[in-house]
Amino acid sequence: MGNVTHLDKSDVLSGLFASWDALDRLLTGLSEQQWRTATPLPGWNVHAVIAHIIGTESTLMGVSTPDVDVSALEHVRNDFGAMNERWVRHLSGESGADLHQRFLAVTGDRRKQLSDLSDDDWAAVTQTPAGPDSYGRFMRVRVFDCWMHEHDIRDGLGLAASDAELDGPAARLALDEMAAVMGYVVSKLGQAPDGSRIAIELTGPLARVIRVAVDGRGQVVDGFGGSEPTATIRMDALLFTRLAGGRVASAPVELGGDREVGGRIVERLNYVI
């Protein structure tokens, strides 16, 4: 297998717990109608998104996935999606208030479990949504997933995050996770040719630059050794996450250098299952 990702446990858990805290604040006081409001995810309302998170964290604690037939649902396209949907259907009859309490209980149990995890278990290689990697990498993927779902709910309810709400470890770690796969996105999905130097310039409160050099395969790098990028992609960081996550079909973007290559990468930016 490739290199194992070693991540600081306290840093990743601070982001994951902050994401759960943000969801708790967002859910507090929602009406039952708001719980049933559609989100950008096909077939899922706010209630379903939280049921999915509850299901994932329950599964990670060893709870069996409910036996629910979801084969007839058009938006379920693979085994992973089927597992998610079984939890969503299983919990669909609960009120929003009861689901909120279940969310707090499950994430409370997970906080203790994760805080007590040994360093060896944190570093151990396991199967993650990004392939075999450390359990720590898996938990950074969890930060990404929970943070993205916070914004799915915000989009559905029309409650955009303030700059202060975007500023924190959860957003940083979510973008770290997305940046880590940009080599694959740029070279495999975007078909950037060998020799390409792609600079993805993200603006707004979550501003950063992601640089990818292509030499046989795409690799995220700290710099281009003094060379200029062959193509630049400039866009708002939050919109970048929505586009890469398949939540929106398009977003305002500025292209520089090789616009054909840059445009192709943007068109194929969605890599999330």
Automatic annotation (TrEMBL):
Record-linked Gene3D superfamilies: dinb family like domain
The species this protein was found in: Mycobacterium kyorinense
GO MF entries: metal ion binding
Record's protein name: Maleylpyruvate isomerase family mycothiol-dependent enzyme
Top-level taxon of origin: Bacteria
Database matches in InterPro entries: DinB/YfiT-like, Maleyloyr_isom, MDMPI_C-term_domain, MDMPI_metal-binding
The MDMPI C-terminal domain, residue ranges: 173-261
NCBIfam families: maleylpyruvate isomerase family mycothiol-dependent enzyme (TIGR03083)
Domain called Mycothiol-dependent maleylpyruvate isomerase metal-binding: residue spans: 18-154
